[in-house]
Amino acid sequence: MAIDEALNHPTPKKPAYPIVEGFRNYLARYKRERELPVTYERMRDFHEAIPLTDEQGRPTLWDSVIYRADEMADLNAGLKQIYALLRVDGDFSMVEHLYIDRVDFCSFGNSTPFRVRIVNAYNDNQDYFYIKKADASRAYGLELEHLLSPNRLNFLTSGSTLVEEHIAGIPGDIFIAKWLEGHDLSPVRVAKEMVKFNERCFVRLLGDMRSYNYVVVVTPDFESAQVRIRAMDFDQQSYNGRKNFYLPQFFKENFGVVRYCIKHLHPRTALQYQREEQTLILHRAELASQRLGLLLAEMARDDLAPAEKVHELRLGLAEHFQRAEYLQCETMGALVRENLASLRRLLGGAAAPAATEFVF
Fold first, then answer.
1. pLDDT of 56 strictly over 80
2. Which of 94, 233, 284, 360 could form a disulfide with 88 if both were Cys (CB 3.0 to 4.6 A apart)?
């Protein structure tokens, strides 16, 4: 089994990249950029923080934060308005019966997010959303996920603030430890979804999909259960220079599920599932061709990584796909666009390798 040890050493923290005017115009065109009543900077002005523990009393990476009493009413009203924008296009009458139950803060990671828990007063049903520092890499990652994956995503930007909906599911590390062998899941369905997820990340250059950066959604079906893997962290969209950084199969945190795939999936079947996902990616790209074209045009003009990382990655992709066209790319966005061109060439019958070979 191939685990890329070079990927499993600590890496320097990725810098945040500002959302430039062209990309912000794109976001406004598709109603992602909105005026928000609460900013990330305002959320940082909390008065007190209390460590948050899990159900077993163990510390988490989160603190529950408390704001000054004279600010709470206005802040809570603003957070409900953000939720209304996220869920019902700003129709506040639809969320009047909701209340803000808790706000948590995490100082770990690039985005240092706030997690807002909002509760329905009629039935106690709860939901979450996140307020983060805006970062162009993350916003591009969210939009590419919306357009090229089977998952739809709601998010909003406003100046230096980013709002994201909660992505529900079983955290990948917990799934590998407690669900992979201990529940009545079809091994082939689990392996099939891992192959597909691996391919989606590689084509759109979403990096660092270690087990704690994705969730697994299990849906009961009349014959066993369906499984889908969803990315939940988009900090490392198109930044790293190593090709294998965009292949979840090479991270040691995913060793358990990769070994599971090897055990239960024939290499020819893995190739079939890979090709299925490549075809679906292109179909999604065609359905959203105008929007995706505008997005990639802005992304190709944007500087989302140092030039040396772009050049390192383009060399790796050019060798992988055996296509010299990659060597003309000067930005990460251009490399994503070239990956899609490679898929079109492959599925159009031209001589080119599959996008990646799953490890066996």
1. yes
2. 94
